[in-house]
Amino acid sequence: PKQAEENLRSPICCIMGHVDTGKTKLLDCIRGTNVQEGEAGGITQQIGATYFPAENIRERTKELKADAKLNVPGLLVIDTPGHESFTNLRSRGSGLCDIAILVVDIMHGLEPQTIESLNLLRMRNTEFIVALNKVDRLYAWKAQRNAPIRKTLKQQSKDVQNEFDRRLIEVITQFKEQGLNTELYYKNKDMGETFNIVPTSAISGEGIPDLLLLLIQWSQKTMIEKLTFRNEVQCTVLEVKVIEGHGTTIDVVLVNGVLHEGDQIVVCGLQGPIVTTIRALLTPHPMKELRVKVWFCVLPFCRPFPFSLFFLCSSYVEYL
Ligand code: GTP
Ligand code: MG
Ligand code: NA
């Protein structure tokens, strides 16, 4: 129904997988940023979040389908660490999302934290799309910047195509061993039962249009009810931090509802509930990572706050 479609919130998508499969790099590629190279040891150690407005997604997917209908306002992507010591953060990320991307390195296949992530997603019945990343590492791959995957695969040599097929089949077999049917998304005739695989490269951007379009279409097709905006506040804390000039801040994802400066809120503390007032709402700019604080727009203006909230919104924030 038209009315419902007009009142959708952004789907929340969690990106998960084994360490160094390219989760952060994929997001860098979509954002046009360089967050990954700034990470200590190239390892993600926190949950990150980025808001992608629908217009950016439309732009990025136009080669695939110029008339792609986007009913959602955008996509909120949660980045998680793949290192084995961060099971708790993967669990929090997967608990928060509507849909997920499970990243697999095409050169490595399924790895221990791929399987751990897979099980976290299955536990909650969360739909996910497999990004079979690093296709550009196939020997003699000819990169075509940001091209849809079918277009670029067609233009590879026979040897490269054979190598791709061989590795793809290996990954499909490994998923099968985990009790899961998977298939290349454009060959998948049984969406719902069989999980989609989208080959990608975070370096050349190949397959990114396919991944974004599939995420949006899949969410819009199967989650209209879940994504219909509700007024009741639903908000999850990602991090608590003391930031100079702001005092104690919390990074949160607002899933539903509206928050204002001055609202009284209750958050769970280690010593019991904390009752406090929202002094400021700060949101990262669209297409910028929540973890990179320099990108924040401070609203209404910057002054020392004993307590402030950093916000990333899947729904609306109203500024007074
Ligand atoms: P953690 O967050 O630490 O689990 O890692 P990650 O999954 O976010 O991987 P990350 O983005 O840190 O990438 C790991 C390494 O792989 C980096 O050196 C990237 O440059 C490289 N990389 C990521 N994606 C690709 C890709 O598509 N192709 C190639 N050739 N290299 C990639
Ligand atoms: Mg990372
Ligand atoms: Na990494």
The end-to-end span amounts to 32 Å
Q: What gyration radius follows from the Cα positions, in whole Å?
A: 20 Å
Total beta strand runs: 14
Helices, by number, come to 9
Q: Strand order of the main beta sheet, please?
A: 2-3-1-4-5-7-6
Poorly predicted spans: 299-306
Mean pLDDT: 88
Distinct small-molecule ligands in the complex = guanosine-5'-triphosphate, magnesium ion, sodium ion
Oligomer: single chain
Please describe the biggest sheet, giving its number of strands, its sense, and whether it closes into a barrel. Answer: 7 strands, mixed
The percent of residues in helical segments reads 25-40%
- The general outline is globular
The succession of helices and strands, N to C, reads HEHEHEHEHEHHEEHHEEEEEEE
Structural class from helices and strands? Answer: alpha/beta
| Portion in strands | 25-35%
Overview of the molecule:
The chain is an alpha/beta fold. It contains 9 helices and 14 strands. It has helices at 2-6, 23-31, 54-61, 87-96, 112-123, 149-154, 158-177, 208-222, 224-227, and strands at 12-17, 48-53, 74-79, 99-105, 127-133, 182-184, 195-199, 234-243, 247-256, 264-269, 272-277, 281-284, 296-299, 307-313. Strand 8 and strand 9 (247-256) form a beta hairpin. Helix 3 (54-61) packs across helix 8 (208-222) and helix 4 runs parallel beside helix 5 (112-123). The chain binds guanosine-5'-triphosphate (GTP), magnesium ion and sodium ion (NA). Magnesium ion (MG) binds next to helix 2.
